[in-house]
Every structure is written in structure tokens, then in C-alpha cells.
Design a protein that fits this description.
Family: Belongs to the argonaute family. Long pAgo subfamily.
GO molecular function: nucleic acid binding
Protein name: Protein argonaute
Shape: globular
Helix content: 25-40%
Strand order of the largest sheet: 13-26-27-28-24-23-20-21-22-19-14
Structural class: alpha+beta
Oligomer: single chain
Strand content: 25-35%
Organism: Aquaticitalea lipolytica
């Protein structure tokens, strides 16, 4: 059985040298002129590199175009971008002209979707499913060699066979589903509602079980590659008169790729204790060794509760379990509850108790709401109203749904719930080790969320190590790109200045700034802000690293032909600037870590291990997170902040009162 497999397929060329025609970009600088050039010669590919536009026939023709051209010779070693584009354009030209397929280039990317016409979903009237293969061209530099190829992945694409009116006439409620006037988009919520409403749940679940697994995904990719090699590759004609050889693959380790398993960090508890008894579960370890912040939390902690009267008895029983967990597992000596039972679930009823003197003395407040309040607009939401007003008083809140109280919470979920509450009162259940460094190091996470209008809103989170252990520092929303650079610059200036003043650091000290960013770094924002901050502290020495962390890519990892798990912590360098890191053993989608080449600190493995260790810092659950907190925390924080802004009277500056608590988890 095969071992580790990466879905990168190598392109093999008979001849990698091309004599290409090219024209001056200055003659086609406007978008209109450039698009007209492409429209006039649809059989040719035009590709700009700096001041020249190279072009070639996508079908191997040697036809000359009536353009003011010159010739230049390129090969894969000198111009891998151009050669990769040649291979892509000629391959996709054959696929686009295959009438059995629907081929589309994905917007704002370099990848293509190839949709099969064969419906693989049987037994559900009005719904179809098709295999959709994503092809993304890629070239990799390995020492002095350049490897050309494609990543190929597979997903299932659903399609409603009837328009909106027909669906509604058949008794399907389309209210709230995304789409336009004529159709409903077949996203997961729409498909799930359809199969449940029309009585096809069993058929759908059987289909998912059969098709939505790594083994089926692996088999589908190889079946498609075999079809490409047999039916498409022989038809591809390159502009130098040569052909493509069949695309190939290798299991890992190979001459191009190798991997290793990064170790998990040690967790430290009260007084720096480690687990010496090899306890199985993390909550057992906290219970045995006490939380890291054991002597920093008051012996008596008061928690407020706001709950409608009709849920009083069940809520009291539920709170007894919460109290027991906080006292036994997290070692708070005594929990007291201040309960405010309100008349009903109207916003006015919740608001009536918010300024109660007893409630305002609480470390955190539990707000009990019903499930149907999730769809209430933020401005009318009791939960968001309570959260906004109480945060203004420096009091975080914990949401508990009535349905959770009714059904009870399983032991695992209750353990995580009490951990959340502990974090919100300012507690730290554990810290993790760090490797000793010669330089002061700041790690800044930059995450984002997408608003209903499609705009991105950004947030920052600082992770720092004042006592030799990683701890979560303060977080700050950044808002939109309009003020992103200035806010980032202000944030960096403040944390560096505070560190210099608090530690009495001399000018001989060196600093390292490491940025975990949800998008590709740019000269306009991140790089510019960093350079300006470094200039402000010119008497000190700085190095910096900008790394882009993303799941929006086309790499997939399989083990044992998809029948076995990919090890957690598996680290696979693609080249000197890019690596894959696996967080979830059951998933075939790893995290891609891309180091910006303009960084002055370039130890990719060191940076990747740091990213991996930060997943152990999440205090949403005892289990390591599925992604690093440096992106998760600022994303959660800014998403919640944007909602709070909708509450009348909300003041953003009030967040400064609670930046030592994880109020947003």
C-alpha cells in the first residue's frame, strides 16, 4: 500500500526551449487595448512579463501575427513562469474544446474547474451531483532545478434541476436561501434543506458516506489523471513543435519531497509543572496539577446569570453542574451565582436587569437565550445587547442556549464550556513551552472576517513570551483597509515601546517581528508599516518574517491511498518559501505556509513549528485547535466587534477595559 501522497503531478516536456514572439507592453497599457488584443486573436495566449508581452499559439500553430514583434528564447530554468503558462494554456485549450466537459477559469485565481457531465447522484428527484476537478498550474524550485506541474483536486458540485418557481410549486420553502430571481444556489444549507424537506435524507446520507471520504477522493483524482494521460495529453501541441509526455507522480519521500512530524509542545500548569503521570486527557491534567493561573484567580468568583423565568428550574440544575466543574477541575475554591430571572424573552426584559448592582460585581455573566433568537437581527438580539452593554462595564458574557439546558450537555462539551468561562474571568488553564531565543520576539496575528456586504474587516492579536512561555496578549480590531496600515503601525509601535520600557532594554538588544497573516503580504500595507516602525526604533536591530497562512489552495495530502489518517503535525516543505502543515488527521486539506521572500528572517521550519505550537494555545477547547490562534483569535474578535457596533450606544474604546480576557471566544 502506498505511503504519503501529495496531489502534485509533474509535467514532462520533450523540449523546454521556446522561441517566443513578444511585443512592448507600452503599446497596450490600457485594459481596453489589452483585452482587444486577446479578443482579436483568441487562438493565442498573451502573457505579460515586466515590460514585454509574450504570446504564442495555444494549438501549436506557427502562424505569424501582424504585430510589431521581436523573438526571444526562453526555457524552464530562465523563465519558469512563462513555460508554466505555455503548458497551462495549451492543455486547457484542449480541455475547453472537449464538448463533454464544462471548463471555467476560477475568478481571481490561476486555477481551472473541469466539470464532468456525468450525474453521480441517483435517487433524488430534482437534484444532481457532478465531479469537479480543479487544476492549478505550479512550478517548484528545488536547488538548481525547476519542476513544472499541476495540483489536481476533486470535489462534488451539486445542481438543482429545477428553477426557483418549480421548486416552490413542489413544496420546497426557498425563503432565506441564497440565489437570484430564477434559481437557488446549491450550497450546503440549500441542499440539506431540500433533501430533508423532500424526504431524501437517507439517500443523501448514503451518497455522502460513499463519496465524501479520502479514499474515494484519491481514487477519483487518479482516475481523472489516467483519463488525461490517455485522452487529452496526446492532443496537446506546444508552440515549439513538441508534445507533452504523460504527467507523473511520486509517493513521498522522493527525490523532490520529504517530510517530518513536528512534535507537540509541552503544556505547563501551576508553578511550571508538567504532566509526570502521563494522564490521558488534558482536563485531567489541569485538574491534577491546577491551572497555570491558580494563584491569580480570586478564591471566590461571582458569576451573573440572566434567564427567562420559564426556564428557571432547568437552568438552576444546569448551573449546579457548571459550579461543580469550575470548582473541581479548575480549582476555583468557591463559585457563587447571582441569578436574575426575567419575565420573558423580549429585549426589554434582558435590558431591565443589566444595571443591577449585584450583577455588575460579577466576573462574567451567563446569558440564557433560545435557539430561535439566533436569527434575530443584531440590533434586536438580547444576547448581543447584553454583551455590548456588559463589555462596556468590563464584564465578558457567556451564551448558553435554552436547548442546551433542556437536553443537557455531554461531558466533553461541558468541559469546554467551563474552560471558556474560566478564560473569560481572566484565567489561563495552561501555557506552552517555547524554545529559548537570543532575540526578543513578537508574534502578531492578522485575521479577518467577511461582512454581509462582502467587505473584509481585519483584526490584530499579539502573542508574546514575557516569562519564557507563550501567552496570549492583547487584541485590537483594525477595521477596513483604509486605516489598516496606520493602525498596524500604531499597534507595533505601542507593543515594542512597552517592551523596551518594561524590561529596560538597551540599544544593543535585537528584536524579531513575526507576522501570521490571513492574506498575501503587500508592500502597501504590512511591509510598509514594518519598515516605518523599524525606522522609529533605529537604535535597535530588527529582523522580520511575513508569513501567509491559508487553507484556500489546491494541495491535498493522502496516506495509504486515502484509507489512513495523515499524521497530525506532518510538515512537508514544498520549496524554501512554502510548506504544508497538517492539523486534522481525518482531513486531506493541510495548512499552507508561505514565507514572503522580502522577509529578513527566513527559517521556514522554525516558523512552521511555531504556527503548529500555537494551536495548543486555544482556550475554546482543551483539545488543540484545528488552526493557529494567531489567526483564529483576531478573526473571532473582529467578527464579534462588528456585530457589537450595531448596538446603539456601543463604544469601541470600551474593549480596552478587558483586553486581558478572552472575551471573544
Amino acid at each position: 500500500m502506498a505511503g504519503l501522497f501529495l496531489n502534485f503531478f509533474k509535467v514532462n516536456l520533450e523540449n523546454d526551449e521556446f522561441d517566443l514572439s513578444n511585443i512592448s507592453y507600452s503599446d497596450y497599457e490600457s485594459k481596453e487595448d489589452y483585452f482587444e488584443l486577446q479578443d482579436n486573436y483568441p487562438d493565442h495566449q498573451f502573457y505579460r512579463v515586466n515590460s514585454r508581452i509574450h504570446y504564442w499559439s495555444k494549438n501549436g500553430s506557427s502562424k505569424l501575427l501582424p504585430l510589431n514583434s521581436i523573438k526571444s528564447r526562453v526555457n524552464s530554468k530562465t523563465e519558469p513562469k512563462i513555460i508554466s503558462k505555455i503548458v497551462e494554456s495549451c492543455l486547457m485549450n484542449v480541455l475547453v474544446n472537449d464538448e463533454r466537459l464544462e471548463v471555467n477559469r476560477k475568478s481571481h485565481s490561476y486555477s481551472w474547474d473541469v466539470l464532468s457531465s456525468n450525474n453521480i447522484l441517483k435517487g433524488i428527484k430534482g437534484l444532481a451531483a457532478f465531479n469537479c476537478y480543479n487544476i492549478t498550474p505550479r512550478f517548484i524550485r528545488k536547488n538548481d532545478n525547476v519542476i513544472l506541474g499541476f495540483t489536481i483536486s476533486l470535489r462534488t458540485k451539486f445542481k438543482f434541476l429545477n428553477d426557483r418557481k418549480t421548486l416552490e410549486a413542489n413544496g420546497f420553502d426557498t425563503v432565506g436561501l441564497k440565489g437570484d430571481e430564477n434559481e437557488i444556489y446549491p450550497n450546503t444549507p440549500a441542499v440539506k434543506r431540500y433533501v430533508e424537506a423532500m424526504g431524501y435524507s437517507a439517500v443523501y446520507e448514503s451518497f455522502r458516506k460513499t463519496h465524501f471520504n479520502n479514499q474515494k477522493n484519491y481514487e477519483g483524482i487518479f482516475k481523472f489523471v489516467s483519463w488525461l494521460n490517455s485522452n487529452i495529453i496526446p492532443k496537446v501541441k506546444l508552440p515549439n513543435g513538441s508534445s507533452l509526455k504523460p504527467i507523473t507522480f511520486y509517493n513521498i519521500p522522493s527525490t523532490e519531497f520529504n517530510h517530518q512530524i513536528l512534535r507537540r509542545p509541552k503544556r505547563y500548569f501551576y508553578s511550571g509543572q508538567e504532566d509526570t503521570k502521563n494522564l490521558k486527557y488534558y482536563n485531567q491534567k489541569v485538574k491534577e496539577y491546577k491551572p497555570a493561573s491558580f494563584d491569580e484567580i480570586d478564591s471566590v468568583v461571582q458569576i451573573g446569570v440572566i434567564c427567562p423565568k420559564k426556564h428557571e428550574g432547568r437552568t438552576e440544575t444546569f448551573l449546579k453542574t457548571v459550579k461543580n466543574r469550575l470548582e473541581t477541575e479548575l480549582h476555583i475554591k468557591h463559585i457563587t451565582f447571582v441569578t436574575k430571572f426575567i419575565e420573558d424573552e423580549r429585549l426589554e426584559s434582558y435590558a431591565s436587569v443589566l444595571y443591577d448592582e449585584e450583577l455588575q460585581k460579577s466576573k462574567t455573566v451567563i446569558v440564557v437565550v433560545s435557539e430561535d433568537q439566533k436569527i434575530i437581527p443584531v440590533k434586536q438580539s438580547p444576547y448581543y445587547y447584553c454583551k455590548a452593554k456588559l463589555i462596556g462595564m468590563g464584564i465578558p458574557t457567556q451564551l448558553i442556549r435554552v436547548e442546551t439546558v433542556n437536553t443537557g450537555v455531554n461531558s466533553f462539551a461541558m468541559t469546554n464550556l467551563t474552560l471558556n468561562i474560566y478564560a473569560k474571568i481572566g484565567g489561563t488553564a495552561w501555557t506552552i513551552e517555547k524554545e529559548d531565543k537570543l532575540k526578543k520576539e513578537f508574534i502578531i496575528g492578522i485575521g479577518s472576517t467577511t461582512l454581509d456586504d462582502g467587505n473584509h474587516v481585519l483584526g490584530l492579536a499579539q502573542i508574546f513570551d514575557p516569562d519564557g512561555r507563550y501567552l496570549v496578549g492583547d487584541c485590537a480590531p483594525v477595521s477596513t483597509f483604509d486605516n489598516y496600515k496606520e493602525n498596524l503601525k500604531t499597534f507595533l509601535k505601542r507593543i515594542i515601546k512597552e517592551e523596551i520600557e518594561s524590561a529596560s532594554i538597551s540599544g544593543s538588544e535585537e528584536f524579531r517581528l513575526i507576522f501570521h497573516i490571513y492574506k498575501s503580504p503587500s508592500s502597501e500595507y504590512e511591509l510598509s508599516a514594518v519598515k516605518e516602525v523599524i525606522e522609529l526604533f533605529r537604535e535597535y536591530s530588527f529582523t522580520f518574517a511575513l508569513i501567509h497562512l491559508a487553507y484556500g489552495h489546491n494541495y491535498r495530502l493522502f496516506y495509504g491511498q486515502g484509507t489512513q489518517k495523515v499524521s497530525k503535525g506532518l510538515y512537508l516543505p514544498i520549496d524554501d518559501y512554502e510548506a504544508l502543515l497538517n492539523f486534522v488527521p481525518h482531513s486531506n486539506l493541510p495548512l499552507k505556509i508561505r514565507l514572503d521572500g522580502r522577509s529578513t528572517f527566513q527559517d521556514l521550519q522554525y516558523l512552521s513549528q511555531q504556527v503548529y505550537w500555537f494551536s495548543d494555545l486555544s482556550h475554546r477547547s482543551y483539545m488543540p485547535a484545528k488552526r493557529t490562534v494567531t489567526l483564529m483569535y483576531p478573526s473571532l474578535m473582529v467578527a464579534l466587534t462588528e456585530k457589537l457596533k450595531e448596538i446603539d450606544g456601543w463604544d469601541f474604546d470600551r474593549l480596552k477595559h478587558i483586553n486581558d480576557k478572552l472575551w471573544f471566544i
